[in-house]
UniProtKB/TrEMBL annotation, chain A:
The lineage of its organism: Bacteria, Pseudomonadati, Pseudomonadota, Alphaproteobacteria, Hyphomicrobiales. Pfam families: SBP_bac_1. Keywords: Periplasm, Signal. Residues 1-22 form the signal peptide. It is found in: Periplasm. CDD domains: PBP2_TMBP_like. This is Sugar ABC transporter substrate-binding protein. Belongs to the bacterial solute-binding protein 1 family.
TrEMBL record, chain B:
Gene3D superfamilies: MetI-like (1.10.3720.10). SUPFAM superfamilies: MetI-like. Pfam families: BPD_transp_1 (PF00528). Its main location: membrane. The keyword Membrane applies. It comes from the Bacteria. Keywords: Cell membrane, Membrane, Transmembrane, Transmembrane helix, Transport. Residues 72-262 form the ABC transmembrane type-1 domain. This is Carbohydrate ABC transporter permease. One of its GO terms (biological process) is transmembrane transport.
Length: 438, 276
């Protein structure tokens, strides 16, 4: 009898422990301002959901990518929520590695139709949303209004490459360490190739034709690379072939660049008087074009997704709903001000008068995002998805290899023709190996 | 007669020594300096060397954002644990190879070293799958096992070269006096090889402390050591130099202090013997 009651008691204790025990979500994320802020504000979520604990694994972008790819490919189950970009979503969804976020889409309160259409379509595979955007970005021109005025130049809202080239050369004074334009040169698929691929779209170039044949031997690519290398030679800073986002940001903030074409997220950095010496002198314009109907801007969204086979789906969905909702934007605004809300995901944000008041770059950001179409990124038809990348698994390696060729051309270690020839050979080999072409 | 060295020559050599030392130490110094700057100052060009507003802001932010002590304890357990287990296995192995070599000893040594020739990423997926099935992912035990394995060849090689310096006759003499094998290793060989063992120990703790591939790939939230702590502060898009430097300074501090205290031992061990 005693034994029985003892066992009963033990059972009920275990059962209660089971109920009381909080579920722990492990969230893998990248280290950037908006994500760090989400981590800080997560108390709001855990107070609403006391039965859910959050554990964060923050990693540098490339480390994170390798880490989560290993885990999801082997079904390691280490993470319940992963922060991934528009590059991974179509590839992983096709592999069946992600859970579709059907509940989120049908939730009226969440209002999935409010998500900016280009961002939503970048995260959709076969009509199902596989990741919820946390913040989105495009790229645009940031320029120094004061220098343009002094030189009697006027930056149009939608400039052409010819104008940008001309203005950059005019504003360059290398003796005074003043450079007309700062662009990415550091090799990498997410570094110089993000910029150059987006730029090549506006020149009418494409990575592959409809039959996956590499196109670096075509005149459009030569025109793109010639323009870029010559422009940087005439009007770029020295050592540009090792400059990435952070290096250019430092140059621009210290007043050494008249123009910088890069991620829209940079706008809040260069406009911050605490860090930027040119905070009140920056103007914004759309990425340049060549009159062919496509602009040289990219599209990216850091998004939250749930790996297939996750055992904590419900809690994970709850968290994603919280982090990418309209209420979250309000929460950030109430704590850190409207300037700091994660941009580029929701139409309603760009209709919010308070936001428009504090963010002078809001309209340009919205226009830039809306002018990018990941499903139809180029002038000529292509078989792939992605504006500044090609959403195939081989692209990370191939993009970086081609980026090294182009970086070498910029550094003057090789000619533009040779770099293109090498890029063509590299791509042909990779495409044959992947079985895309024979 | 000792060679007379003029004061001038001494001075020159000292100056050159300091210069070389400074050049080698400079990146670490720069990291430490940057950790006391604001983000804006960290990327200022031209950079400010010493005259800037010293601030602890980055340290404060790093502390408030992540749990340094958890990561440090993980690093301590993983690096010390893997080195001790490694030594336990390697001392008898090196003894056998140094004092009773066979025809194949050289080949075995080479084979052990060859395991270091494969790029680690080549075996990432198989090891990840094994760890998943054994439930070792994101555990300290798993990381201790994998780091023991990857550092074992180096430990064996280092100990082997130290043991080679010890005259076999001494061990023979102890055997003549009736010492058993275990006693021979523990009471005769080990005390004589202490400088060698100590420097092997230190070097391997440092190697394990700094190991970034396996520790990053096999850990997630609970077993992540300081390498993951550093990786969480770098970003290709954004201003994180000061915070990254603060995190790096915090991560290298324990091992730097350990290295400082054991400097003499380490140098003696590494230069032990006449032919090294």
């Amino acid at each position: 009898m005693r034994l029985k009651s003892l066992m009963l008691g033990a059972c009920s204790v275990i059962a209660m422990a089971g109920f009381a025990q909080a579920e722990t979500l492990t969230i893998a994320t990248v280290n950037n301002g908006d994500m760090v802020r989400m981590q800080k504000l997560a108390d709001d979520f855990t107070t609403q959901n006391p039965d859910i604990d959050l554990e964060w694994v923050t990693l540098e972008e490339n480390v994170l990518r390798q880490r989560v790819t290993t885990d999801i490919a082997t079904k390691g189950g280490q993470y319940d929520i992963m922060t991934i970009g528009t590059y991974e979503v179509p590839i992983w969804a096709k592999q069946g590695w992600l859970l579709p976020l059907d509940k989120l889409v049908s939730d009226k309160n969440y209002d999935a139709d409010d998500i900016l259409p280009p961002i939503r379509s970048g995260l959709t595979y076969e009509d199902k949303l596989y990741a919820a955007p946390f913040y989105g970005e495009s790229s645009f021109v940031m320029y120094r209004k004061d220098l343009f005025d002094q030189a009697g130049l006027k930056m149009p809202d939608a400039p052409t490459w010819d104008f940008v080239g001309e203005a950059a050369r005019k504003l360059t004074d290398k003796n005074k360490e003043m450079y007309g334009i700062c662009l990415r040169g550091k090799a990498g698929w997410g570094e110089n190739m993000a910029f150059l691929t987006a730029m090549s779209n506006s020149f009418g170039a494409r990575w592959f034709d409809e039959n996956w044949k590499p196109q670096f031997d075509q005149p459009e690519w030569k025109e793109t690379l010639d323009f870029y290398v010559n422009l940087m030679k005439d009007a770029g800073p020295p050592g540009a072939s090792s400059n990435g986002f952070n290096e250019n940001l430092a140059l621009f903030q210290s007043g050494k660049c008249a123009m910088w074409i890069d991620a829209t997220v940079a706008a809040s950095f260069v406009s911050d008087p605490k860090e930027s010496q040119v905070a009140d002198k920056v103007g914004f314009a759309l990425a340049p074009d060549k009159g062919l109907g496509k602009r040289g801007n990219w599209l990216w969204a850091w998004s939250l997704a749930i790996p297939a086979g996750s055992k904590k789906t419900e809690a994970a969905e709850k968290f994603i709903n919280w982090a990418t909702s309209k209420d979250y934007l309000e929460l950030v605004a109430s704590k850190d001000g409207w300037l700091n809300v994660p941009p580029g995901t929701r139409t309603s944000l760009y209709e919010n008068a308070e936001y428009l008041k504090v963010a002078p770059f809001a309209k340009m950001t919205l226009d830039s995002i809306n002018s990018a179409d990941p499903n139809k990124p180029t002038v000529k038809p292509v078989p792939y998805v992605g504006v500044q990348f090609v959403a195939i698994p081989e692209f990370q390696g191939l993009g970086t290899a081609v980026g090294q060729q182009f970086s070498a051309a910029l550094a003057g270690q090789t000619t533009v023709d040779q770099a293109l020839k090498n890029a063509q050979q590299l791509s042909e080999r990779e495409m044959m190996k992947g079985g895309y072409i024979k | 007669m000792a060679r007379a060295i003029s004061t001038r020559r001494k001075l020159t050599f000292t100056a050159i020594g300091w210069l070389v030392g400074f050049v080698i130490f400079f990146p670490i110094l720069w990291t430490v300096l940057t950790s006391f700057k604001t983000e804006g100052e960290a990327i200022a060009s031209p950079p400010h060397f010493l005259f800037f507003d010293w601030t602890l802001q980055s340290y404060y932010e790093v502390q408030s954002r992540s749990n340094y002590f958890k990561h440090m304890m993980n690093s301590v357990v993983i690096s010390f644990g893997s080195t001790f287990i490694g030594l336990l296995v390697a001392i008898p192995a090196a003894w056998a190879m140094a004092f009773s070599p066979t025809k194949r000893t050289k080949d075995i040594m080479m084979w052990m070293l060859s395991t270091k020739m494969l790029p680690p990423v080549g075996v990432l997926v198989p090891i990840y799958l094994l760890f998943r099935d054994w439930g070792l992912l994101d555990t300290r035990l798993g990381l201790v096992i994998v780091l023991t394995m990857i550092n074992l060849p180096i430990i064996v090689w280092m100990l082997y070269t130290y043991f080679k310096e010890i005259p076999g006759e001494i061990l023979e003499a102890s055997r003549m006096d009736g010492a058993s094998l275990a006693k021979e290793i523990v009471y005769v060989l080990t005390p004589m090889a202490v400088p060698g063992i100590a420097s092997t120990l230190l070097l391997n703790i440092i190697l394990a402390w700094n190991e970034a591939f396996w520790t990053l790939n096999l850990s997630a939230a609970s077993a992540a050591p300081l390498t993951a702590f550093i990786a969480s502060y770098s970003s290709p898009e954004g201003l994180f130099w000061a915070k990254l430097s603060a995190a790096s300074t915090l991560a290298i501090a324990p091992i730097l202090i350990l290295g400082w205290f054991s400097q003499r031992q380490l140098v003696r061990g590494l230069t032990f013997g006449a032919v090294k």
